[in-house]
Amino acid sequence: MYCGSHNATTSAWGKLTLSKATKLPKMNISNWELGVVLPITEESDFPTPYQRPAPRYRPGQEAWTQDMDY
């Protein structure tokens, strides 16, 4: 489980630019934020939008990927 800011601004994520001196890419970050990742175990009471532990794939079942067409 992730606990932290969900700030999607350029300040938070940075901006990729080209250095005028070296002509190489550089990342400009003007803000540092902290996020914490907590493990979710079978004993955890945190609600999740999925079944824990995840069920095993059945024979012939294709693993999900974000590129699948439905």
From TrEMBL:
InterPro entries assigned to the protein according to its UniProt record, in alphabetical order: Tdp1
SUPFAM superfamilies reported for this sequence: Phospholipase D/nuclease (SSF56024)
Entry's Gene Ontology molecular function annotations: phosphoric diester hydrolase activity
Gene3D superfamilies per the UniProt record, alphabetical: Endonuclease Chain A
GO BP terms in the entry: DNA repair
GO cellular component: nucleus
Location of region: Disordered: 44-70
Superkingdom per UniProt: Eukaryota
Pfam families: Tyr-DNA_phospho
Protein name per UniProt: Uncharacterized protein
Organism listed in the record: Absidia glauca
Source lineage: Eukaryota, Fungi, Fungi incertae sedis, Mucoromycota, Mucoromycotina
